[in-house]
Amino acid sequence: MKFRFFSSGEETKPRGYSSDTDYWTRGRKIASSLSSKAWYNPSLKIESDEEKTYKPPSLDKSWEFFEHHILPRCLVESPDTAGTSGGGLFKRADIGEHEKQTMLYPVWGTPLLDLADFGVGAGCYFNTLLFLALVTFIAGCLQLPNMVFFASKNYDTLQTGKIDFLSGFKALALDISAICDSVTWEPCPTCVESDWNTFPSTDDRLAKGLNENGDTLFFIKKNNCEVNDNYAMVNLLTLLFIVGAIFFWIGTQRKRIKLFDGAEHSSVDYSIEITNPPSNDASSYDPETWKKWFENRFEVEVAGVTVALDNEELINLLVERRKLLRKLQDMMPHDEDKIDIDHLEEDIQKCTPVPRWKQILLRASTAESIYFSILRLDAEIDELSKVEYKPASIFVTFQTIAQRNKILDLLVVPITKIGTIAEEHTYNGTVFKVKKPSEPSAVRWLQLNTPGCIRALKLVLTALLSFFFIVGGGLLVIWVRGSDQPEFASFTITTLNICTPMIVRAFCSWESHASESSASASKYVKITALRWTNTVIITTFITPFTFSLQRGEGEGLIDFVYTMFWFDLVMTPALQITDIWGNLCRHWFAPRQKTQERMNLQFKSGIADIGERYTNLTRILFFTFFYSSLYPLGFFFASIIFVSNYWFDKFSILRTWQQGPKVGASVARMSNIFLLLCLAVYAVMGTYNFWMYPFDNVCENGNVIDKEFYGSWTAMDNNGGALFQNLVVAEDNEEHSFCSQNLLMRFAFPWLPGSILEGSEKWMNDSQMKFDMVYGWVMIAVVAVVGVLIFAWLFGRIVYALFYRDYKSDDGDEDLGERFEDIPEIGGYVPQVIINGYVYPLLLCDIDNIDEEYLEWCDPYSNYDEHNIIFDIPRIAEAKRKLRIVHADSMVSSNTVEGHQNQEEEEMPRIFSIVKTFEKDSKEQQGFLKRVLTRDRE
């Protein structure tokens, strides 16, 4: 048996693959113009070897693969656009669609509604970006009076009183912030150096003065900037607006999910999942039995059934075996485009030797070691393939949405009412646990049935790893801030934010999740925690309190905030839009590959991860809210960043990122928690910052300075530089003292305004005293409501499930009257897995009994058998070959195909999941089977 990794096949372009350059990406046009140059495309120097049937790889074919298999495409149903009855402009095509004419989604012309083609979660994400862009813009407009106030002499006497638009953007951006340049040194007879030793300490706010007699007197630096009534009222108005906007957005989310879900039909709309099938009932293996049971009991039409078996151990070994074969293939000479799995011992002699230094230093595997690993796996696989695996989950797809809803209405009940289910709705006495499944592309078939205790243990371990990474990142930021160039802290934090998703993905690859939505939610929580910590919490922890209003790059807090916004506005989008690594792979590494598949693999880009994009969204919002009372211009920065993220992410999904699994609304719902947390943080920080003005730890004692301190004083800093000279203390100078204004570091119980503000009257001005309790109780109210909502979301669902069912018939599943079999663009539940090193997914089940439209992808140059791991077991492959011959003969002589098939399948152990589709007109299905048989005989 030959195992071919790439089928060179016919060179004719598949029908539906257009040669019209108007349908090409810009990168392909550039590559086409340069492909005739040997320096760009070295494969031109390689000549075909007819004797060995070797053909040099085609760069154009790889670009074709990139545009038709990596990037999303829509159907061309008119000269200008494609249409769908779902309400959008475009109808998404299957991956690799080659029977129908397709085109790339237009970047500018694809409406928001059609972004739900990539999952309801994607549509919700882009909608949230636009909403937050609008909210932050309006909030910025509401804050304009405060920006004008900060630039006026009423706030800072050293300001010019005018906003100078010609002074440069940075100078303008800092002038309209809370930076206070008006400072004075005031006598502080009671001050001691130990007052400033609390972490993070600073030595630039206290100075020891000397007079001509050698006497000493401590001086303390005072900020002469105060807030007023208008500042307080503007901040309260902005807070109330944002609270209302966020609550409105969360409250109307169900309607938006319904809108996006209805814009594009998917298999989820037609399907259910049974998570507790009778494992000891032989009929549970038979799709026909499930079809008849549902149709007879509920008067519905079943379109397809998938019986997923608990065979994860066997499947994981087969996948590992494929990975090892991939490694061997990569070590083969470039003119060997196939590997003979029946003669591996001979093939490994052709592999390129691995240098000894790589074996020692890099732990690189040799061909011989890989071969012996394959032999060990073969022995384990042979043993496991003799076991009969039990059904673990059943996926049933119906012909209409109304039929699916009918089943859910009858079978989904609260936990406390399970006993009320009618006996005719049970399966041999078993009460089914029924739920809406994930999208077919989002099901993790290798981890579908992992025990809950193992899932929990892995989650705990990855949480610990994430915690250690947070600590490590924080220590790095602290070290940079304490170095000679603290201005690089912003760059360090941005770099950590960019690298965080890759690190977290590596951690989460060890976890077990039944769906991509669950995995995405796990990554969402970890990445958000890391980014919030790196961007805000660590910065707040290591920045001295008195730096809050201080100017100075590397020292001033507001300078840091401005720099972070600038990095998010410029650096991050620039790296994303240029896609440096992706372009390097496509334009440099790909043309230098020796085989077609290796060249194609260079065109596989990163998969769009909506959960990771949500973390970036909430990080920007969290950062904006945290510092908005000191830097109100951040609202405008955030608005621009959200708009740019909308377009850059849209461009990346349509032109750069690989098509990933469709993520449902679970991530969007989880984002509500983080939006609420951002809201609570906004209320808390806005209130505390108002209370803690002027951030200098200076209080007036109300006493005139003693006469003994009259005279001229001089103070030097630690480096011998003069802090002030000839500072005269006279009878009009008041005595000052140190008082900690950092209420965030003060423990108050109960956490109420009265307890928190105890002693704050020493530094507050009249405006602060007037509004302090108003701010306090508004903060308490917001935090209390947010806390109740989050608690209800986290724990209320458990109580809710006891008395109410978690399904509503109007949960976005509007029945437009279309039958499942009439929508070829949506697929079904076919077990498969995507692994590195392979261009196409690996199938994990027999697909001879399904319509080819049930799969959401196709390889136009080869058949599905090449990508099916069931043929990696020799006796299964031989049995399938015989069965197909029987089918072929039966099709010619009689209609006894099904009888032969059932007889043969009964003789084989049930080791792979079973999938079958049912249609009224089976001619198309039989045509597919005939094509399979023809290819098999050839």
Automatic annotation (TrEMBL):
Entry GO MF terms: calcium-activated cation channel activity
Any GO CC annotation of this UniProt entry: plasma membrane
Keywords from the named record: Membrane, Transmembrane, Transmembrane helix
Transmembrane segments: 231-250, 459-482, 488-508, 529-547, 620-648, 669-691, 774-795
UniProt-recorded name of the protein: CSC1/OSCA1-like cytosolic domain-containing protein
Organism of provenance: Chaetoceros tenuissimus
